[in-house]
Request: fold
Amino acid sequence: MSEMIDQSELQSRAVRLVEAARKAGADSCDAVAVTGVSLAVDVREGKVEETERAEGDDVTLRVFVGKRTAAVSANQLDDPGALAERAVAMARVAPEDPYAGLADEHLLVKNMPGLELLDSREMTADALADIALEAETAGLEVAGVSKSGGAGASWRLAGVVLATSHGFEGSYMTSRYGMSMTAVAGEGTSMERDYDFDSRTYFEDLDAPAEIGRRAGERAVRRLNPQKLSTRTTNVIYESRAARSILGHLTGAINGASIARKTSFLKDRMGEAIFAPGIQIVDDPFKRRGGATRPFDGEGTAASVLHMIEDGILQHWFLDGASARELGLDPNGRAHRSGSGTSPGATNITLMPGELSLDTLMAEAGSGLLVSDLIGHGVNGITGDYSRGVAGFWFENGEIVEPVSEITIAGNLNDMFRRLVPGSDLDNRYSAATPSVMIEGMALAGS
Reply:
């Protein structure tokens, strides 16, 4: 399968751009060349509804003239010199950025780690259709499911090359396989829908299509006839799928760019306890077959496993070169290519599990709300104020009583982090991995 992407040609493109930029007058520069092929099939009611195949190439040249920078992109590299001259001319009239520049040479990756990023299995449209149809069939066989909302399967292969004017050349290839199914339960105005999905680097790690479909169907059926709740303060438990959003709010708040701009509610909390004792959150760029695993970051910088939260205490920001310079710190290999430059961010981040199962969390809480779905984006990154629409299940005496919907839960992330209790059911499949989590005493706005 890897023959579909010529890494040597990608590398040649990037190196030629770097050489052309130096000839055009750039003090320093880097070039990223990416290419990919993807195939996706959607089915509905036993028939293929859409098949989409995409192939693409892109090169981006970033140049520095003093502390001025500019970037240009192209789909084809017919004339590297012309592209480089345009980038340098743009940089010369750009405003100065005191934090612009390539990564320091001593921070660059010297030896590429061996990582499981590429599965050699190539997928055909027929094979993907069979997977999607199997998932849909299994979902429709669940008692109470009235129709399919569709199912899909996909495959993607990508290649990435980074070359810099101070001697770094690195490349890697990745594969990704995925499937999903949406089931509809009930009839008329009483219909409810839910879904299940899986996405992996290696095909063999995917859950069985029938399992995806069955879970989607069961999730839809258990949402039938939702009730409304009155306004109250209650214990809230997030299923692991919903709990990933909590981790996302944390990663945004400890992003070095947000800290430098002073737009994070955690900007002054480095070295302080922001979670309860015992809470561990780890970011691992080398996680086996991880969704964000990579041998080097967007600047070619070496990375290491970071314990972002250790025993509840905030230990690190996510830093690329620019944010690190602005904060007077060293970058930690968390640069992501973003348009014409880089931005810092997480790789494979995991909230480590606790000792209590989901059932035990519910039993200890006694009564409360089990959140299965979140709606909206009501989070203020500056203050930490939190307000999200949710759907899920009300439980009493540790047992689910009824499905509920049209509810808003609210709080402040500072308080929510301190009261967060992780369960033992870690879902480790994705780049943001969490178990279920319980947060006591949240405000619930109902009818």
